[in-house]
Amino acid sequence: MNAPDILCAGMIVVDVIVDGLEAMPRSGETGRVSSVTLATGGDAINEAFAIAKLGNNVGLMGLIGQDSQGQFIKDRCSHYGISTEGLYADTDRSTTTSIVLLDKSGERSFLSERNASIGAYGPEHVNLDLIRPGLKALSIGSIFTSKPFDTKALGPLLKKAKSVGAITIADMVMDQQGYGLDGIAEAWQYLDYVVPSELEAQIFVGSTDPHTIAADFRKRGVKNVILKRGSRGVVGFADGEDVSCPAFDVPVVDTTGAGDNFVGGLVHCLVRNLPLAETLRFASAVAALSVQAVGAGAGLKNLAQVERFLIEQRVQA
């Protein structure tokens, strides 16, 4: 396999998806649900799968356990042609496994174990030698998932990626560690794009104004800011442009991984240097397709599907 053109680094988990949960069963009872499915999850692997489905050469970096769940992840990566050279298998920790509970509306809640791989990912698990000349993009699945990674590995990883000419992108989650934006000050200067949800960004920055949020990240050194707004679409501040894109109206089955699939579509376009408006529309289409089946991005099939969807949306407009 050739060296990946794109690397995705960050959270990698196995999801046990319980669909159609109406209420938790009482003690001693068995509840009935529509389906129970084993699937991969976590922002980095969700992004990698989306990017691979769109026809790109992708590699995955992250921490798993040396267990059956870790092997399941490797097998699924092999299915999509994703390089696992950057996966570190820890013999002392289990692969993070989550129970994903889906209600009738497609909204989700999670149960996850405490002492698994998800929060232990750190610099000792990151091989900087995988950042080679020719790499087109490095996407960080979520900042604020692992403190050792964020505070010790993130800056050097992004710096190395910029040194070989790669585009750098990062999503984020809510800060449950308590170190905030200032706690990773070294890393911001090496980020070309930050792609948080609007709510996350509002909490981090302390403002509901998108322009103020974008200005705050830029002051820290980030070049471009894209805010995911859920059903309200997305707004991007990049290269002096301010572009909004509405969300597509589609039947929602499972919203798990919708934001990750959006980032996957975004990365696909960024490495092709497409205009911002076209990029946001394409990435929004990827996200819209991803939510139409159970599983993180299961509704997304391939590039041809996305292209057909966009044509159909233009005809209907």
If you had to describe this structure to a student in words, what would you say it looks like?
By secondary structure, this protein is an alpha/beta fold. It is 33% helix and 24% strand. The chain contains nine helices and 13 strands. The strands form two sheets. Strands 5-4-1-8-9-10-11-12-13 form a nine-stranded mixed β-sheet, sandwiched between helices. It has a four-stranded mixed β-sheet with strand order 3-2-6-7. Strand 11 and strand 12 (234-238) form a beta hairpin. Helix 5 (198-205) crosses helix 6 (210-220). The longest helix has 17 residues, at 147-163. The radius of gyration is 19 Å and the shape is globular.
Give the structure's gist in a few sentences.
The chain is α/β, with parallel strands linked by helices. It is built from nine helices and 13 strands.
